[in-house]
Structure formats: C-alpha cells, structure tokens
Amino acid sequence: MTTSRQPVVRDAVLAALEGALRAPSEHNTQPWRWTLLPDRLELAVDPHRRLPFTDERGEGVLLACGAALHHLRVGLAARGWTPVVRLDREGPPQRRVAEVAWEPADAVPDDARRQAAAIDRRRTDRRRFAAETIDPGVLDELALVARTFGAALHVVGGHARRALVDAMRDAALLQLDRPGYTAELQRWTHRYAGGADGIPHSARLAEPHLYDDLVLRWFPGGGLHQPPGGADHADVSTLIVLTVDGDDTASVVRAGEAMSAVLLEATAHGLAATPITQVLEVDETRDRVQALTGGHPVVVLRVGRPVPEAPEPPRTPRRDLVSVLVDRSAEPDEQDAR
Predict the structure, then answer these.
(1) Which domains does the chain show, CATH number per domain?
(2) Measured distance CA(64)–CA(113) in Å, rounded
C-alpha cells in the first residue's frame, strides 16, 4: 500500500466499518470488536456480549461476527477495494476470528453495489407477511449467494415444515425452564436509555408472534403493531434452514457471512426476513432440525413479502464506531517487526 493511497484506503475502510455496524446479531448484542492496523483489520468476539443462557454453544456470537464481516466485505467492494479475508480455524471465542486486508479492484461487482445499497434498508421484521409466495427463481438466487460462503439453503415445506414448527414450539417451552434465560431476555429487551443495543420497545411486537402454525420467540412489552389486513392477509412466509458442513469456528463465521449475504440479497428483492435461532439453542430440537436437513444448522430464516400497507419497521440502535474499534493504524506493526 503506497503512502499516497493510505488516506484513501483509511476513508474507505472506516466507511465500510460504519456499514458493518448494521449487521444483525441475536438480541442486537453486537458482539464484535475490530482492530485497525496499518494494512489490515482484525475481527474478534467481544466475550462480554455473549448470551450465556441463550447461546450456550457460543455459535450466536460467531454467526453475528460473520454477518459483520460480510457487511464489511460488501462495503469495501462497493468502494473499489477487493477484501482479502483469512479466517482463524479454531481457538477460544474471545480471540481473533478473522483478519481482512484489501487490494485495489479493477471494477465494482454488481452484487456488491446491490447488497451495499440494501445494508441500510435491511430490517429484522417480526410482523405478519403478505399472502404472496416467493418466486422460485428468487429462492434459487438466495441459495446461490449462500453457496458462495460454503453454506446450503434448505427450503422447508410439507411434512418437513410441520416437523420444524413443532420443534420451534417445543424449543420455546423448554427454554423457559432454563435457569437464567428469562432474566437474560429481560436484560436485553429493557436496556438503559441511550445504550444503543438490545431490542427496543419499537421493534418488539405488542401482540404474540402467532402465524397459523408458526410461533416465534416472544419478546415482552413491545410497541410494534401488526400491519393492517388481519385474517384476510394470512402469513405464507417461507421457512429456510441454513446449514454448513462443520461446527468449527471458521465454518460458523462463514455461515454468518452466508446469512448476511442471503438477508441483503432478500432485501434487494423487496423481501422481509426474520432470522430465527431459538430452535437451535436447545439440544433436543437442534438435533431434530439437523435430522431434517442433514447439515449442521446455524439459523432458520423466515422470508416473505411485506404487507403492502405496512410501514417500514424502525431501525434498531447500533453502537458507534468508537465503541467497537481500536485504532492502531499509526503504530508499528508487530507482525512486520518480526
């Protein structure tokens, strides 16, 4: 990297990091830490933001870091830089999980433009969706972007869907009996004013999450109302299970990248989506989902068309860049010194 390019690169990297802040995470915990070095970024899990009673396996924080990593990829590519990513295969969850360098690109890929434009528009929407099925060609496109990151999408219908929603209902009941779970849910749905994390009142439904056979995780005390239409607009959302081949650190981080790519691509197609992990947080129900798909399941996605009359869901808060970034770009690089 030449000296003349350093300010240009820094501006692009910081702008891409701002976009990465919008990545989804369970309960909006935002469990990522970035370190900016002279020629690369390092990404690590913030262990203090893990949900120990909800995310006992520790996969949720890796999934979120993978989503933030993909948002960064998209932001860099949209600004004319090719990200060069190296994932750490194993290690304790508090260590670095990835590093990202960059090279000047000859052109901006079309998918990077499209997905970068979707970052600010993407929302987790827990409301009822419209009575309109998704074009199979769009589902094929979502599966294609998932495969780019080594993941597979399984569209679940018929008997498999009934088995999945039964597992989701059982997980919701079993998790209520887990010590610490309810208190943890309360903590992340009733944050301090100005905390810039957690699930705010405006993003939690005021009514139970019941859509025919489908029950979503209940977040108490919400102020978000269902769109107009009532029973005349039955929810016909598509359920998709995203799986990977392994459960090592790198595989789950890449799964987070795949989830991000699918969510941004869905947003670009005008779809709404709800990431669902509760059914995978209980050993018994996760095993049942794995039996349905064959791969290692990391997230279920509820995808559909938003109700036309529905207002856009409000943005959930995010911490600012200063809170998640350690800037060491002006310091000597220890790796180069060696």
Answers:
(1) 3-121+321-337 (3.40.109.10), 136-304 (3.40.109.10)
(2) 22
